[in-house]
Amino acid sequence: MTKRPEDSALDASVRIDHLPPEGRDLKLSANAEQRAALTERLRISDLEKLDVSLNVAPFRGGIRVLGRLQARVVQPCVVSFVPVTQDIDEPIDRVFLPGREKQHAPGAEVFIDMEEEDAPDYFEGPEVDLTELIVETLSLAIDPYPRAPGASVADIAQDPDDEPDSPFSSLKSLRDSGDKS
Q1: What pLDDT score was predicted for residue 5?
Q2: Is 0.90 topped by the overall pTM?
Q3: Are 68 and 52 in contact (CB under 8 A)?
Q4: Which residue from 96, 121, 136, 143 lies 20 to 30 Å from 61 (Cα-Cα)?
Q5: Would you list the DSSP string of 74-112?
């Protein structure tokens, strides 16, 4: 996973060549500058909070990342455009394996459960950048159609003179203005 320039301040890189067997804990709290960059990238009104707590542990030749993402997102209501706040609390569980072209030792077994929701991700080298995992988890948790409490499409008043154009609206005006024979 490559680091995007706008996320460079959000450092979620982990060296995996010296991981202890029980894993390493990684805790991140995004500062105002990092949240502003993510707000722009995700095209939301505001990201008031982003806290991530991860445990990165060796797992079958790669790593397994377990943890939790907590955030507070503000975006406009799809009906009234009033700001809507959404609290996000998402679990993270992802497996990363060494690059696909790496040959495993003869007789070594790598178990991948194809019944699981997510296939493993792949990495190259001794370091894994988990920034994209964090951004992806956050973006998938954001409500794509936020609504303010009580907001309804029926609340939008339509001007009665503002009839939608149809192919027959011009014919109606001809009929009303034409002779009545």
Answers
A1: 46
A2: no
A3: yes
A4: 136
A5: EEE-TTT--EEEEEEEEEEEEEEEE-TTPPPPTT-----
